[in-house]
Amino acid sequence: MDEKQAHDGLAPAVRAAYLARIGVAEPGPPSVEGLARLQAAHLRTVPFENLSIHLGEPVVLEPAALVAKLVDRRRGGFCYELNGAFASLLRSLGYRVSLLAARVFDGERPGPPFDHLALRVDLAEPWLVDVGFGRFALRPLRLDERAAQADPLGTVALVPYGDHGELDVRLDGVPQYRLDPRPYPLADFGPTCWWQTTSPQSHFTRSTTCSMLAPDGGRTTLSGTRLIRTSPDGTRTEEQLTDAGALAAYREHFGITLDRLPTPPAA
């Protein structure tokens, strides 16, 4: 482990608390099996959510702050927070982790650089790991594999794009994001993170969302006061809640206790 990896690692007590947060016993030396278990556990216990933006809370892109939000405050976050914190956990467990930038597709058009943060984990071969993209793969993906890869949540293909090693990541044939193969420090994601949390053009500032993988492989999502349940086969049901019901749903489905509902700014 190099100096940068050691710097981003966690103290033993913090690492133990993080593992308890996601319900994983000490996973042992780095391995593909251990990595897969950690990723699946994270996706099943830590929600993808943008509530800080609508609660007036700052999003601080520093490893200790990200881990404290997930572990001490029992919250989730969006890609920069979730994958940023998970990188610290993995490094503290001995994994070699790089931060990769990606551009999220809107239809067939990719968004701006640093639109998304994903992880590269190097074992005997490189793996794409992502716990910060909402509905995506449950397991790590072979980063050098160009054939389609089966996952419990769909079929993923990493399709080369251009002459600079970029990859278009597709889930069930639908483009998700364009991945830059170069590693970046966490601070490089700061300007786009700031834009995502402040710009009226960012979809994160327009509405609230809190979503997590359900035990049956579907998803549970709270969007405003709409509780949305999506089954593994894609069947979707919606329930309109009262404000009190929404606060109860945050506690019941996501383990998040709030004293008020997060509200988007007025248009």
Structure in words:
Helix 5 crosses helix 6. This protein has 9 helices and 14 strands. The longest helix is centred in the N-terminal third of the chain and has 14 residues, at 32-45. Residues 1-7 have low confidence and may be disordered. It is 31% helix and 28% strand. Strand 2 and strand 3 form a beta hairpin. With 267 residues, it is α+β, with helices and mostly antiparallel strands. The protein is globular and about 50 Å long. The chain has helices spanning 3-7, 12-21, 32-45, 51-55, 63-71, 79-92, 190-198, 203-206, 243-254, and strands spanning 48-49, 96-106, 109-110, 116-122, 126-129, 141-142, 149-151, 154-161, 166-171, 174-183, 210-213, 219-223, 226-230, 236-240.
Compose a concise summary of this entry:
This protein has 267 residues and is α+β, with helices and mostly antiparallel strands. It has helices at residues 3-7, 12-21, 32-45, 51-55, 63-71, 79-92, 190-198, 203-206, 243-254, and strands at residues 48-49, 96-106, 109-110, 116-122, 126-129, 141-142, 149-151, 154-161, 166-171, 174-183, 210-213, 219-223, 226-230, 236-240.
Comma- or semicolon-separated keywords:
267 residues; alpha+beta; 5-stranded antiparallel β-sheet
Give the radius of gyration.
18 Å
Number of helices: 9
Beta-strand portion reads: 25-35%
Q: Strand tally, please? A: 14
**Residue-averaged pLDDT:** 93
Taking the sheet with the most strands, its summary is:
9 strands, antiparallel
**Helix and strand composition category:** alpha+beta
Alpha-carbon distance between the termini? 48 Å
Task: Identify the overall geometry.
Answer: globular
- Unreliable spans are 1-7
